[in-house]
């Protein structure tokens, strides 16, 4: 009998590592080793923690890979590392080779969508199919807070820790349609606390501020995508409105859009039941 509900799933500990050029990447695998592979990508300013419930559900029938991008979650957070979308796309393509995955299903949220698209159209990473969830793919993108502090991250990096934590709690909660459960909010917030976590948060945000022109460049490759693509979007997403999803659907031939009722930008957390049902259908 398969038992994906390992201690790592319950406690969300990523026990394996990969030494990338942008820092050591933490990753984990759930499910049976001979099951069909699925890879989950998180976005900004989140971590693989957003996939906690969905990873456990998919692991009943799939071999599920999760990872924290360098500078995020449980991965290495050190200065002077390249955390740009081009670097992350290249690292993801390297990870697929490291995992010996020639054509997995890929599910990507937020900037994870940009990373997955870049790895596919720029680096030639092969997927069986691709699901994009409230994905960063077309400009303009980003929350109002992201745009407000763009170019001023060094100022916010100097905030007292208590003010930074209060700001982060409000910022993360705004990504949710119904609002986050306190335990979920704590899990998403934890990597960004403390001196190192606070510095890492504003460091990665500065990189994201420079990435928008890159999505403008790689979108020319979207019409060349021939694998099955499904888009999932929260009806209450205020960070990346559904207009971006409809535009992206037009660019990727044969793609389809499925709305997730009541979900904000954090669809994997806000409505995991509807998203899991849609993903299971798509993976079949």
UniProtKB/TrEMBL annotation:
Residue span(s) of domain AB hydrolase-1: 36-272
Record keyword Hydrolase present: yes
Classification via SUPFAM superfamilies: alpha/beta-Hydrolases (SSF53474)
InterPro entries: AB_hydrolase_1, AB_hydrolase_fold
A GO term, aspect molecular function: hydrolase activity
Keyword DNA-binding in record: no
Keywords: Hydrolase
Pfam families (alphabetical): Abhydrolase_1
UniProt-recorded name of the protein: Alpha/beta hydrolase fold protein
Taxonomic source organism: Stackebrandtia nassauensis (strain DSM 44728 / CIP 108903 / NRRL B-16338 / NBRC 102104 / LLR-40K-21)
């Amino acid at each position: 009998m398969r038992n994906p509900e390992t201690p790592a799933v319950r406690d969300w500990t990523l026990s394996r590592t990969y030494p990338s050029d942008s820092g050591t990447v933490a990753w984990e695998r759930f499910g049976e080793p001979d099951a069909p592979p699925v890879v989950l990508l998180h976005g900004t300013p989140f971590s693989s923690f957003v996939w906690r419930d969905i990873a456990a559900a998919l692991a009943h029938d799939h071999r599920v890979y999760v990872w924290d991008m360098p500078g995020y979650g449980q991965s290495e957070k050190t200065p002077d590392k390249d955390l740009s979308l081009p670097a992350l796309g290249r690292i993801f393509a390297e990870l697929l080779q490291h995992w010996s995955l020639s054509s997995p299903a890929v599910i990507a949220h937020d900037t994870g969508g940009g990373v997955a698209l870049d790895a596919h159209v720029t680096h030639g990473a092969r997927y069986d199919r691709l699901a994009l969830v409230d994905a960063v793919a077309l400009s303009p993108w980003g929350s109002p807070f992201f745009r407000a502090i763009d170019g001023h991250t060094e100022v916010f990096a100097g905030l007292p820790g208590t003010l930074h934590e209060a700001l982060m709690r409000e910022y993360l909660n705004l990504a949710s349609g119904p609002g986050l459960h306190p335990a979920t909010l704590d899990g998403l917030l934890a990597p960004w606390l403390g001196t190192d976590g606070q510095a890492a948060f504003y460091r990665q945000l500065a990189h994201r501020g420079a990435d928008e022109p890159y999505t403008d460049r790689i979108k020319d490759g979207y019409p060349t995508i021939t694998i099955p693509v499904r888009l999932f979007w929260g009806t209450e997403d205020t960070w990346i409105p559904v207009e971006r999803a409809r535009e992206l659907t037009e660019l990727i031939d044969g793609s389809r859009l499925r709305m997730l009722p009541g979900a904000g930008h954090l669809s994997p957390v806000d409505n995991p039941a509807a998203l899991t049902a849609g993903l299971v259908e798509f993976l079949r």
